[in-house]
Amino acid sequence: MSPHTDWADSDWADFDAPGEQKLRRKRTKPQGRRKVADLVADDADLVADATIRRLLDLGHLTRVIGELKSGKEATAYVAEGPRGTALLKIYRDLQARSFRNDAIYRAGQVILDARARRAMEGRSRKGLAMLEESWVLAEYAHLWRLWEAGLSVPEPLVGPRPIDYSETVPAVLMRLIGTEAAPAPRLSDVRLTPEEARKAWDQSVSGLADLLRLGYAHGDYSTYNLLWWEDTVTIIDFPQLTTRQSPHFRELLRRDAESLSTSFRKHGLHLGAEATLREVQRRALGPGPTPRVLLP
Ligand SMILES: Nc1ncnc2c1ncn2[C@@H]1O[C@H](COP(=O)(O)OP(=O)(O)OP(=O)(O)O)[C@@H](O)[C@H]1O
Ligand SMILES: [Mg+2]
């Protein structure tokens, strides 16, 4: 369990939302002596607080309703903004991500600015900050591209101009799938009837095919990153999306097909990894979804 989770458990009161997932609200911070772990967690919390304040000031948000989920690298909040109910994803451990082996996702990426490239490769302080920012900007850029292409992904709520969405770093704002009271659960968390499972599988395979048709591998495609709402699958979590430029593209695509196939076993579906990959490739040759028209 991460220090943040420890801290969160003692300081955020769970309350039951009527829906499938729990929202959390903040209680007062504990007084007196703190453990080191708490101090580390407090840093992350301060970043989140400062980010939320800035987004409120800039008008990207009007209200934060509660914390939805604290994951490996980001904390997800349910919030409200001028364009409706939003999922606010605040990255809190980008340094860890940047230090981790992200080379497989970055290989083949072209960074035109030689100074920036050297800073990132050398992992200087400035370079790390750039890397951190680039994960967030990448998630927005991918969301916009996929949303415009008509894929089943959450609508990004800031942009499409990078100059606009760069204001929200280290957070990403997108439309909440589900409702404020009952955010959509992940496919990994639901029980499905056999018929629902077949539908979810069919849409998930098509989702990966849609990505492949556009020249992408997701990089982390499993029921943990697929939401289920009103019989519809929505793909989430895109910072590690990889293009065909990458020398690891085939390997990442194969891994996506494999984790999709493995993670669906609990729903009673057993198509093997190879057969799943072939089906994804077959569907990618067919017609894609209808592109969305963006209104100004
Ligand atoms: N648009 C959305 N609508 C509703 N819920 C969402 C949305 N986007 C993300 N979530 C929820 O927030 C969680 C974290 O989002 P995401 O998977 O993008 O981040 P992560 O850093 O990979 O976190 P984790 O380690 O939990 O997977 C998801 O598991 C999901 O429950
Ligand atoms: Mg995820």
SS class: alpha+beta
Q: Which CATH class of the largest domain applies here?
A: Alpha Beta
CATH names the topology of the largest domain as: Phosphorylase Kinase, domain 1
Name the hetero compounds present.
adenosine-5'-triphosphate, magnesium ion
When the domains are counted, the total is 2
CATH superfamily of the largest domain: Phosphorylase Kinase, domain 1
Q: How many helical elements?
A: 10
Main pleated sheet:
4 strands, antiparallel
Segments where pLDDT lies below 50 for 5+ residues?
1-20, 26-41
Rg to the nearest angstrom?
19 Å
User: Rough shape?
Assistant: globular
Strand ordering within the main sheet: 3-4-5-6
Question: From N to C, what is the helix and strand string?
Answer: HEEHEEEHHHHHEHEEEEHH
Residues in helix, %: 40-55%
Mean pLDDT: 83
Number of strands: 10
Strand content: 15-25%
Alpha carbon gap, first and last residue? 44 Å
CATH-defined architecture of the largest domain: 2-Layer Sandwich
GO molecular function, one term: ATP binding
EC number: 2.7.11.1
Family: Belongs to the protein kinase superfamily. RIO-type Ser/Thr kinase family.
Domain RIO kinase: 30-282
Concise account of the structure shown:
The chain folds into 2 domains: 3-175, Phosphorylase Kinase, domain 1; 187-284, Transferase(Phosphotransferase) domain 1 (Transferase(Phosphotransferase), domain 1). The protein is 43% helix and 17% strand. The protein contains 10 helices and 10 strands.
